[in-house]
Every structure is written in structure tokens, then in C-alpha cells.
Amino acid sequence: xxxxxxxxxxxxxxxxxxxxxxxxxxxxxxxxxxxxxxxxxxxxxxxxxxxxxxxxxxxxxxxxxxxxxxxxxxxxxxxxxxxxxxxxxxxxxxxxxxxxxxxxxxxxxxxxxxxxxxxxxxxxxxxxxxxxxxxxxxxxxxxxxxxxxxxxxxxxxxxxxxxxxxxxxxxxxxxxxxxxxxxxxxxxxxxxxxxxxxxxxxxxxxxxxxxxxxxxxxxxxxxxxxxxxxxxxxxxxxxxxxxxxxxxxxxxxxxx
Amino acid sequence: xxxxxxxxxxxxxxxxxxxxxxxxxxxxxxxxxxxxxxxxxxxxxxxxxxxxxxxxxxxxxxxxxxxxxxxxxxxxxxxxxxxxxxxxxxxxxxxxxxxxxxxxxxxxxxxxxxxxxxxxxxxxxxxxxxxxxxxxxxxxxxxxxxxxxxxxxxxxxxxxxxxxxxxxxxxxxxxxxxxxxxxxxxxxxxxxxxxxxxxxxxxxxxxxxxxxxxxxxxxxxxxxxxxxxxxxxx
Lengths: 256, 234
Fold this sequence. Notes:
Number of helices of chain B: 10
Distance between the termini of chain A: 71 Å
CATH architecture of the largest domain in chain A: Orthogonal Bundle
Strand order of the largest sheet of chain A: 2-1-5-3-4
Distance between the termini of chain B: 76 Å
Order of helices and strands of chain B: HHHHHHHHHH
CATH topology of chain B: 3 helical TM bundles of succinate and fumarate reductases
Number of domains of chain A: 2
Order of helices and strands of chain A: EEHEEEEEHHHHHHH
Strand content of chain A: 5-15%
Number of helices of chain A: 8
Shape of chain B: globular
Number of strands of chain A: 7
Shape of chain A: elongated
CATH class of the largest domain in chain A: Mainly Alpha
Helix content of chain A: 25-40%
Number of domains of chain B: 1
Oligomer: heterodimer
Radius of gyration of chain B: 21 Å
Radius of gyration of chain A: 21 Å
Helix content of chain B: over 70%
CATH class of chain B: Mainly Alpha
């Protein structure tokens, strides 16, 4: 099949950037989207031109490294699919595809379609953990977890941190990501003790990183390749609100 | 874990309320609670206004009652004004923050599943704010440059005079539709801001919010329509 690509080319964070047009006369429908870009890049290298920079790692849809916007859809128009798992058979002959990086103040462009998503890592650092005294291995059933809670927690934990929610949100909010991280720990007994401070710290960090707020549009959930739902944002709000009311400063520093 | 300890202390270092107001979740909470207050006013105001269909005597008596019931009216006004200021401030600040969050717009517009009402909250909100100022000048204060024939105490006559002006009918109607749009998203999303979402109830809340928005718009529109069609006349 024949495709025309209009790809956002930007030398570095300071460059203004522009679209460049590439004609691909023979795209195999069995290729993944990223394989198609690999082919294009080989061609560009052969011609002595700069290849298109894009993020990718596992190419199995589980690492969260890849992602850009195809024709206004983060990760492309196929639901529940990362762009590395998106196959060219979903497009038709003669189509023009416009590729842009995920755009947000918190996601500076490194080059072309590659962006810096370390803001998400810093949100996780602010509270996406459980503090456990590591000791000998415990009996597997010593802490009981309800089936529904464990399922819901797993749904939240399926977030791969790709940032498509931010890309899709008209407010460039990472609420779905943050809500997912807060929920997957908060739903389990191991995460319960730190549930409210976790929400306080992660929501605060989320704002500090320059993400926008949630206005319950729902674009994030539509774009999420892992199908996270808006429920996790409600849970984040609930934990945050409860945490604001009940938060106590530590009375004494440890031990005692 | 140095990172953890440092950030655990952060949220309460200043004042709990200030941190809460600074956070986007806090602002949304304030927006939701004040929104509910303002909604009750929209409903109450409609119930009062519907008396226009019962004729001049009844309507003017009601207006007269309100003007003299200072013990009810003033606390209501103060609460509503405070709610309005908080609601508008939170909304505008959140909107500005969202704009800052994406300084570089997409060249190809995002394929968004957003409902028309959710996308236009800031605009329907600002329209409502503008309308409110105009409406107070027009029918409460009777400012001469807005309402030339205003007579204090003659609420019914003032109402009819307003809706005999075609421009005002258009502006009032557009604003009422705007408020309907605003409510149909607000009445749904406030639950999310309060932390409530449920697979059974949320879709129902969404539908009810839309219905309430449409119903209130239509109910309010009957008043200018009543004057235009002659059902409400001097």
C-alpha cells in the first residue's frame, strides 16, 4: 500500500519544528507502525538524511516507551493499542498520516517525535511505593485480598506510563496516570497505610510538574492503550480529599 | 527514603487550606460544592419566576415579599455571591492552568470524545457571569442605560418591557441555553470532583444531568417566550 506521512521534525527542544512530507510507495500491511518508520529511516540514512527520532523499546505494547499522535489520536486510531502494536493493515491505500509528538509543557520534545516523560517518574517517586520492612518471606495467604479489589487494583496497575492520557487530554492533565498509580497501591492492604499521604504527595507533584487539571472530559480513558477508566481519577480525588482533612504531621521522628 | 520524607511534609507546611486551594483537586472540590449552591439558586429562581404566568398581581406580590423579607434575602445574597466568586475564581484559574499545561498546540486537532458542554464550560461560565451582571442591572437595579422604562416595585411590568425588546430576548435566551449546557456537564462532573464514580450510578447521573440542563433551559425559556407570544402581557 501507498502512504504519505507528514512527520513533525524538530531538531531539539529549542527548534520551532515543522512537518516534513515523506512518500512511502510500498508499505506492507503486516508491518507495525514502528517497523514502517524503521523502513523509512533506513531509506533516509541511505540518502544521507537525518532519520526520524521516535521512542520505542519492547515493541510488545507493555513497556510504555513508544507513543506519538497519529491523525489526532495518541497511539493511532485503534483502541487499546500502543503504536508499536498498531499494524498497517488498519490503514488504507493512499492515506495521509500526520505524526506529531505528545504535546504538553511537562513533556518537552527531545527530538522529532521523541519526548521526555520523566515528569511521570517524578510523580511516582513522590508516593508510588509502599514502605515495607523487608524480612523473611511471608506465607502467601497471610494477608487476604478480596477478589474485586485485587482485580480493580490489577486494572489500575496495567498502566504502562506511556503518557497517552496526557497527550489526549485537552488540559494536558496526567490525572489518569496519577489516579492509576494511586489506586493500584491504595486498593491493596499493603498500600493502605500510606493511601492518603500518597494521594496528597502525588497530586501535589502532578501540579508542580505543570500538568493541567481534570475536567472529566474522558479523552484520556479513550486514548489509554491499557483501558484505564475514569474511576481511578475519582478514587484519587477521594483519597486526596480525605487526606487533606485527616492528615497528621508526624508526632515524633521514628523509634520512640 | 529522602525523597519520600521531604515530600510527605510538604502538603501541610504552609496552611492546610492554602495547599488545598492551590491544588487542582481542591479547586475542583470548591467548584463542585459552590456549583451545587448556585444550582439550588437556579432552581429556586425558576420556581419564583414561573409566577409570571399567574399574572401581574401575583408576580408583583411575590417580588414585594422578597424585597421585604430581608432576613431571607440578604443571607441568600451573601452566600450566593461568595459561592459565585469562589466558583468563578476556581474555574478561571483551572482553565488558565490547563492552557499553560500545553503551550504548543497540536497542529492536527485531537480527535476528542468530549461532549459539547464539557468543552465549553469556561465559555458558558463566562457567558453566565456576563448575563448575571446584565440581568441584575436590567431587572433588579433597573439601571437606566440597560432598562430605560424601569419602575421600581413593578416587577411584572419591567419583565414584560424587557422581553418586548428583541435584542434582550435573544441575549436572555442564548444565556439560558448556555446555563443549560453548563449545568448538563457540571451536574455530572461534580460527582467526580467529590470522588464518587460508580459503574451503575455514573451513567445514570450523566443522563439525569443532561435532562436537568435541558429541562431548566426550556422552563426558563418559557418566560421570554410567554411575553413574545402574548401569554404574559400587561
